[in-house]
Amino acid sequence: MPLVAAGRSLIGSGGGSCALFHRRTPGIEGDANPALRLPIRVSPYHPRLRGAGTPGLFSHPNGRTCLSNDTLIEIDNVTFGYDASRTILSNVSLKFPRGKVTAILGGSGCGKTTLMRLIGGVYAPTSGRVVFDGEVIDTRNKAQLFKLRRRLGMLFQFGALFTDLSVYDNVAFPLREHTDLPEPMIRDIVLMKLNAVGLRGAAGLKISEVSGGMARRIALARAIALDPELIMYDEPFAGLDLISMGVAAKLIRTLNDVTGATSLVVSHDVPECMAISDHVVLLAAGGRIVAQGTPAELMASTDPETRQFVRGEPDGPVKFHFPAPAMGVDFGVAS
Ligand SMILES: Nc1ncnc2c1ncn2[C@@H]1O[C@H](COP(=O)(O)OP(=O)(O)OP(=O)(O)O)[C@@H](O)[C@H]1O
């Protein structure tokens, strides 16, 4: 299910203190291409800047000191329902590691998108806490929410591009909304982000002139325009052909590595997710956590429910048949 389509405020981040790096992006369109020497702004939280794996205390660039730098988001015993009649997530506890790509997999309607909405502060949990970078998200605190959303980039299921704007203006949109940067600088950033997704040459096109796969990449360029620390992808592969899917998957992985951001990917596409993720969470109805671990651990799992899901088996603990009366009852024959 797509997130709030017009959710402008969910696009973008701060990142004012980011360093500027020039770096190759292997694997997107061929390593030999000199155009792939991307000027990309790197999050101040990037392992290269903070000393990867350093145990003990960790100083944030914002001056705060944390006991652990490993977890960016913590879902702490969260229960949530859109209304009192139905609980969507029940006592869910999860930790999303900083700087990693985490895939959230699970059957339709189990609450994956809802979980992202709670992280984005769109809704408040009925009980429990959502903690982002050490701070409990309080949806009543508008100032905190605004600051949080400047640190998030969001890729909606169908791009949610502004169809009346050009490709260029779509990517420029969050920069114009959230910063006072002069137009020449916005131009450089827009072209840089479009270059990162391989679409610098498409800057002048109208949205009606681009394909579905291109639209997804343009939305990605827009989502990273303000160098978010967390990028959330809702069904980034839905409706894409195999080549576009491969490109999108590599982009998610490469952008995560190059910028040092943390990525959450909600998807039904098990092979793509397994190929690009560091950590995988498998959810079932009610937000029950069936399994979590590395892709290799999930693929090797002997748990029947995990096996059925990651191998796409039609029947197993999750039944093919919706609960129904016995055949004999419906067809009037004695069993
Ligand atoms: N705004 C809403 N108001 C009421 N119910 C909602 C709302 N959004 C989602 N739901 C319901 O909450 C449940 C979980 O929805 P959610 O979109 O989080 O599931 P999902 O796991 O992302 O599903 P899918 O993989 O099909 O996108 C579904 O039953 C859905 O119908």
From TrEMBL:
A Gene Ontology molecular-function term?
A: ATP binding
* Keyword Secreted annotated: no
Q: Is Metal-binding there in the keyword field?
A: no
Query: Ranges for the ABC transporter domain?
Result: 73-310
- Per the UniProt record, one Pfam family is ABC_tran
The record ties this protein, via InterPro entries, to: AAA+_ATPase, ABC_transporter-like_ATP-bd, ABC_transporter-like_CS, P-loop_NTPase
By its UniProt entry, which Gene3D superfamilies does this protein fall under? P-loop containing nucleotide triphosphate hydrolases
The organism's place on the tree of life at top rank: Bacteria
Supply the alphabetized keyword list.
ATP-binding, Cell membrane, Membrane, Nucleotide-binding, Transport
What name has this protein been given in UniProt?
Answer: ABC transporter ATP-binding protein
Organism of derivation: Inhella crocodyli
Recall the taxonomic lineage recorded for the source organism: Bacteria, Pseudomonadati, Pseudomonadota, Betaproteobacteria, Burkholderiales
